[in-house]
Amino acid sequence: MSGRPLALVVEDSADQMDLLQRYLDREGFDVFAAIDAESAIAAFPTISPSVAVVDLLLPGITGEECARLVQARFPDCFLIVSSVLDVADYPDADAALPKPIVGADLRRLLRGVAR
């Protein structure tokens, strides 16, 4: 255990995942990376994320459903939804991170997250 808070990232794009991992590491988080909702859900018994970044456009179980499951399982987790979709179409979450993702935007969103 590193003592750093954990960020759950559910993102099916390798490039976006790499970018988010770099940004979150820079902000002081360890990252649990899942390429789909099923992988993230399977890890629920072994993780306790402080923050989650969930892509809305995922194969299989939708990002919206994954976000709901994260909220239900980890009510204190700061939930960020991310997508190329119009922000008006995002489900309820603590924050929205439209793509393309910019490090400064993520940093601003993370200011309120307890670490």
UniProtKB/TrEMBL annotation:
<keyword id="KW-0238">DNA-binding</keyword>
<dbReference type="InterPro" id="IPR011006">
    <property type="entry name" value="CheY-like_superfamily"/>
</dbReference>
<protein>
    <submittedName>
        <fullName>DNA-binding response OmpR family regulator</fullName>
    </submittedName>
</protein>
<feature type="modified residue" description="4-aspartylphosphate">
    <location>
        <position position="55"/>
    </location>
</feature>
<keyword id="KW-0597">Phosphoprotein</keyword>
<dbReference type="Pfam" id="PF00072">
    <property type="entry name" value="Response_reg"/>
</dbReference>
<feature type="domain" description="Response regulatory">
    <location>
        <begin position="6"/>
        <end position="114"/>
    </location>
</feature>
<dbReference type="InterPro" id="IPR050595">
    <property type="entry name" value="Bact_response_regulator"/>
</dbReference>
<dbReference type="InterPro" id="IPR001789">
    <property type="entry name" value="Sig_transdc_resp-reg_receiver"/>
</dbReference>
<dbReference type="GO" id="GO:0003677">
    <property type="term" value="F:DNA binding"/>
</dbReference>
